């Protein structure tokens, strides 16, 4: 490509699914002749890829957009802003009047048309090349998230995702495997499969949509992805499983497929059967405890991450105490804790018995304290072990530069990191490391080889 048509600043908020969407837009725009800007002052246009999972995430998305608009207006150059993702998907029709600072809005399911939008805002007139939609996704760094589905059919009563992202739809296995192969060829060392509900991948395919021998469920997809990466020493991790998705075939596949990490992420939200029912989820404390016991017995050494929500409408003190006792009994390695957020438009927002804000925050603090003590202990338990660590990058510290990586039991961006004593290594190297100390969720690692 000759002279770039312009430079684009990318700002991504929210979860890994949004990172994937930003990567896709960046790849499309790069192929269409735009370069990346890393500073608002150098950008001809900015893309803010937003999150609207919670009211607080929506506020952060809007604040970030307004800060950027103000920063740029006071600076030397002016730079139009395009808002993408979940906020436009959730509030689309109202936004142009409320946010005149934004030049264009692109809903999550319209992002493949980003080149035409940016061309339009910058006044670039041309036919968009036919090859653009086939552009391969590239990522910086050693880890790549790969979306295997979008949307959700569960309609949990507290969650707006099904309304923002639409009904569950699985991505076909050919396109997943092809993206995985491309990413691995580009140097990626860990593939993280994500979606709102990964465990039911494939269940929405009609028979005629699936070629003979192609994967039909998540277990089969994991085996196919593992086969695709096998010659390259690449890790495969799957996140966002729901308890009901844990079939025998999936558990056996995680245990028996060396590339697939023995790491399970199951957001339970609660353990009390009455609260789970009010959340429009299913199960009971007994069923969940049986599931996690079964997982630990069948996959020795498995690492388990979960999510707990406290202060859901009508949650009593006894039910909250039961959740605390449940977390302690299962002994999750990592737990994210949320205070229930009353999301406009959700069923739970209309329920009687909303829990007082102060009580919610007190319960969240107690649950977070427990999550930390379990997580810190689980991290410290690795001290003295040897394991492979993927090098993720270099961080500047007061004492100079330090190499940072993550071990198989640490999901990237979520579970802490390993601080390495080596100075000579590159992003993507896989090193054998002995863990010599820990602090909070972090480990200190001595590079053995
Ligand atoms: S499973 Fe429930 S919480 Fe998760 S995205 Fe779907 S509706 Fe939301």
TrEMBL record:
Keyword terms, alphabetized: 4Fe-4S, Cytoplasm, Iron, Iron-sulfur, Metal-binding, Methyltransferase, Ribonucleoprotein, Ribosomal protein, S-adenosyl-L-methionine, Transferase
Keyword Metal-binding: yes
Cofactor(s) this protein requires: [4Fe-4S] cluster
Annotated EC: 2.8.4.4
Cofactor note: Binds 2 [4Fe-4S] clusters. One cluster is coordinated with 3 cysteines and an exchangeable S-adenosyl-L-methionine.
One annotated GO biological process: methylation
GO molecular function: 4 iron, 4 sulfur cluster binding; aspartic acid methylthiotransferase activity; metal ion binding; methyltransferase activity; protein methylthiotransferase activity
Catalytic activity: L-aspartate(89)-[ribosomal protein uS12]-hydrogen + (sulfur carrier)-SH + AH2 + 2 S-adenosyl-L-methionine = 3-methylsulfanyl-L-aspartate(89)-[ribosomal protein uS12]-hydrogen + (sulfur carrier)-H + 5'-deoxyadenosine + L-methionine + A + S-adenosyl-L-homocysteine + 2 H(+)
Residue span(s) of domain Radical SAM core: 138-377
Record-linked InterPro entries: Elp3/MiaA/NifB-like_rSAM (IPR006638), Methylthiotransferase (IPR005839), Methylthiotransferase_CS (IPR020612), Methylthiotransferase_N (IPR013848), Methylthiotransferase_N_sf (IPR038135), NA-bd_OB-fold (IPR012340), Ribosomal_uS12_MeSTrfase_RimO (IPR005840), rSAM (IPR007197)
Keyword Transferase: yes
Pfam annotation, one family: UPF0004
Any one annotated GO CC term: ribosome
Location of this chain's protein in the cell: Cytoplasm
Binding residues for [4Fe-4S] cluster 1: 15, 51, 86
Class of enzymatic activity (EC top level): transferase
Residues in MTTase N-terminal domain copies: 6-123
SUPFAM superfamilies: Radical SAM enzymes (SSF102114)
Recorded superkingdom: Bacteria
UniProt binding sites for [4Fe-4S] cluster 2: 152, 156, 159
Family stated for the protein in its record: Belongs to the methylthiotransferase family. RimO subfamily.
Job of this protein: Catalyzes the methylthiolation of an aspartic acid residue of ribosomal protein uS12.
PANTHER family, per database record: RIBOSOMAL PROTEIN S12 METHYLTHIOTRANSFERASE RIMO (PTHR43837), RIBOSOMAL PROTEIN US12 METHYLTHIOTRANSFERASE RIMO (PTHR43837:SF1)
Designated name of the protein: Ribosomal protein uS12 methylthiotransferase RimO
Upper classification of the organism: Bacteria, Bacillati, Actinomycetota, Coriobacteriia, Coriobacteriales
């Amino acid at each position: 490509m000759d002279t770039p048509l312009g430079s684009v600043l990318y700002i991504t908020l929210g979860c890994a699914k949004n990172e994937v969407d930003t990567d896709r837009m960046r790849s499309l725009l790069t192929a269409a002749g735009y370069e990346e800007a890393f500073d608002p002052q150098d950008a001809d246009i900015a893309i803010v890829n937003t999150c609207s999972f919670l009211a607080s995430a929506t506020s952060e998305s809007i604040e970030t957009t307004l800060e950027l608009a103000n920063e740029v207006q006071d600076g030397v150059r002016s730079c139009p802003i395009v808002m993408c993702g979940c906020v436009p998907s959730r509030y689309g029709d109202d936004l142009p009047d409320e946010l005149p600072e934004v030049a264009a809005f692109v809903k999550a399911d319209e992002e493949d048309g980003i080149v035409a939008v940016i061309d339009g805002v910058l006044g670039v007139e041309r036919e968009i090349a036919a090859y653009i939609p086939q552009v391969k996704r590239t990522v910086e760094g050693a880890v790549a998230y790969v979306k295997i589905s979008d949307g959700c059919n569960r309609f949990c009563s507290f969650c707006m995702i099904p309304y923002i992202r639409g009904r569950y739809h699985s991505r076909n296995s050919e396109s997943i495997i092809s993206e995985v192969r491309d990413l691995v060829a580009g140097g990626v060392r860990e593939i993280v499969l994500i979606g709102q509900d990964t465990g039911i991948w494939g269940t929405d395919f009609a028979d005629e949509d699936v070629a003979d021998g192609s994967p039909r469920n998540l277990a089969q997809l994991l085996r196919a992805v593992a086969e695709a990466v096998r010659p390259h020493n690449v890790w495969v991790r799957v996140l966002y499983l729901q308890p009901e998705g844990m079939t025998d075939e999936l558990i056996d596949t995680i245990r028996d497929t060396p590339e697939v990490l023995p790491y399970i992420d199951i957001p339970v939200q609660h353990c009390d059967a009455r609260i789970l029912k009010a959340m429009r989820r299913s199960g009971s404390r007994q069923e969940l405890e049986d599931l996690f016991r079964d997982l630990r017995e069948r996959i020795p050494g498995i690492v388990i991450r979960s999510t707990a929500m406290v202060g859901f409408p009508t949650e009593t003190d006894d039910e909250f105490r039961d959740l605390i006792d449940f977390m302690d009994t299962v002994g999750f390695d990592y737990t994210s804790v949320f205070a229930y957020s009353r999301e406009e438009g959700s069923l739970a927002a209309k329920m009687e018995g909303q829990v007082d804000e102060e009580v919610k925050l007190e319960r969240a603090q107690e649950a977070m304290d427990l999550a930390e003590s379990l997580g810190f202990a689980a991290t410290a338990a690795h001290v003295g072990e040897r394991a492979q660590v993927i090098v993720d990058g270099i961080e500047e510290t007061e004492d100079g530069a330090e190499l940072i990586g993550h071990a198989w039991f640490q999901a990237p961006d979520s579970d802490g990191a390993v601080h390495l004593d080596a100075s000579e290594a590159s992003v993507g190297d896989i090193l054998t490391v002995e863990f010599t100390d820990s602090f909070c969720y972090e480990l200190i690692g001595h590079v053995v080889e």
